[in-house]
C-alpha cells in the first residue's frame, strides 16, 4: 500500500483556492468608478502583458496565447487508441502546459473583487500598523514608574481608538483602549483584567514586563512591501488585507469567458415534459455552477442535438465568443458522438484515454484558436474530470499562479477492498468521525458514473490505486470537495 499511496499524492489532484463569485454570467458584469468603467470596456485582447508575465513568472507558466503557437495546444500529445493510456498526472501536466493566461484586466472597487484574480500586486503605501498602538483595553504607562510607585499610578488621560492622546506625564498612567495610539513616553500597556481603579488612579496587581501589549509601527508590513502577489485568487481575507492597506480599487484579470454546451438528443430541461427515452439535462446545471464557482463568465449554449451541422454551428459560435469552449457528452467514438468529429473539423482534437475511472475519455483540442475541453456525458464523469483537469486549466487561464493538481489528504479507510481495480478509481466517499473524533473514509455503495446522488451523499473522492487491495485502517488518498470545487463543501 505504501508505494502506491505515494503515487496517489501525485496522481490524485487539485488546486485549493476558494473562490466564491455569485453573479458570474456575462450579463451581470458590473464595474464601478471611472477607472473601472473605462477598463471594463477593454476589449478582449488588450494587453496587460506585465501583469500576465508576473503571474506567469511566479507560476513557471508559459507566456500568453498571443505569444505562442496556438496550434501547439492540441498537438502536443496526439495518441492513437493503440498507445498506452495517459496517467492522470500526465494528462493534467499536459493540459496545464497548454493553458495560457488570458489578456485583459480591469480596475474594480476592492469591495467587488471577491473571487477575482489579481493582475497586479498590491503594494502597501504605509506601515501597518501606522503607529505604535495598544493591543488591549488597559492602561498605558512606563514600566519603571510602576516599580517606583509600589504598583499604583494616578491617571492623567483617557485615549480611545480613533483619538490621539498627549505625551504621558511622568509618573502617571493613561486609560487606553484597543487600537488607540500609544502616548509618547509610554512603553507598556497593562491589561485591564489585572488592574483595579483605586482613588484617582490604577492599581496593578500583577508582574508586568516593559513592552507588553503594544503593537509596534510596521510590525506587520512596511511601506513599499508587497501585500498580495499578482495571480492570487481574492478571498475574503485578501480583500480585508487590501482594504487594510488602503487599496480602494484593485487591478484584476477580466473574467474568463467559458462557453458550455450539453450534447444529446435525449436531453430535456426540467419543467418540460419528459418523453419516453428522455432524461433531464442535469449536466447543464452542474456544469454551469462549477464554472460560476470558479468566477467564470458563462456563455451557456444550452442543449445541442446529436446532429453534425447543429454541433458545428454551436461550437463555431462558441469559439468566437469564448476564451474556452467546454462540452459535456458526444466526445466518445460512437456514431452519435458528434462533438468529437465537429471539433476535429473546425480545428484539432486529441481524445485522451486517461487511466482513470470515471472520466475516460477526455477530449482536448482547439476550435480555431480557442481551446476546447470535452467531458463524457455521465454526470459523475463530468464532475470528476472537471475537478481534476478542467479546474486547474481554467485557473491557469484566469491568471492564478498556484493552479495545480489537487493534493489529497491521507486518511484511514473505513472500508475494505478485496478485488483490486484496474485503473485509478475516483470513488465517491465521505469522512466519518467516531465518538473519539477519529476520522475514517467511507465509500458510496455504487461506483456508477451516472449516479449524481453519489455526489450529494459524498463530501469528497477517495482515490483507489490500481492493483491494490485495501484493509480497514489503511491510509487512503482522499480529496475533499472543499479542495476540489469552490462552494461544494457539504455539511
Ligand atoms: P455521451 O458521453 O454523450 O455518450 O453520454 C453518456 C451518458 O451520459 C448517456 O447515458 C447520456 O444520456 C448521459 N448524459 C449525456 N449528457 C447528459 C446531460 N447533459 N445530463 C445528464 N446526463 C447526460
Ligand atoms: Mg451523447
Descriptive account of the structure:
The structure is a single chain. With about 500 residues, the protein is α+β, with helices and mostly antiparallel strands. The protein has three domains: about 15-25 and about 60-95 and about 255-400, Molybdenum Cofactor Biosythetic Enzyme, Chain A, CATH 3.40.980; about 135-215, Beta Complex (Molybdopterin biosynthesis moeA protein, domain 3), CATH 2.170.190; about 410-485, Beta Barrel (Beta-clip), CATH 2.40.340. It is built from 13 helices and 26 strands. It has a six-stranded mixed sheet with strand order 7-4-6-5-9-8. Strand 23 and strand 24 (about 440-445) form a beta hairpin. The longest helix is centred in the last third of the chain and has 20 residues, at about 380-400. The radius of gyration is 29 Å and the shape is elongated. Bound molecules: adenosine monophosphate (AMP) and magnesium ion. Adenosine monophosphate binds near residues 279, 281, 328, 332 and 378.
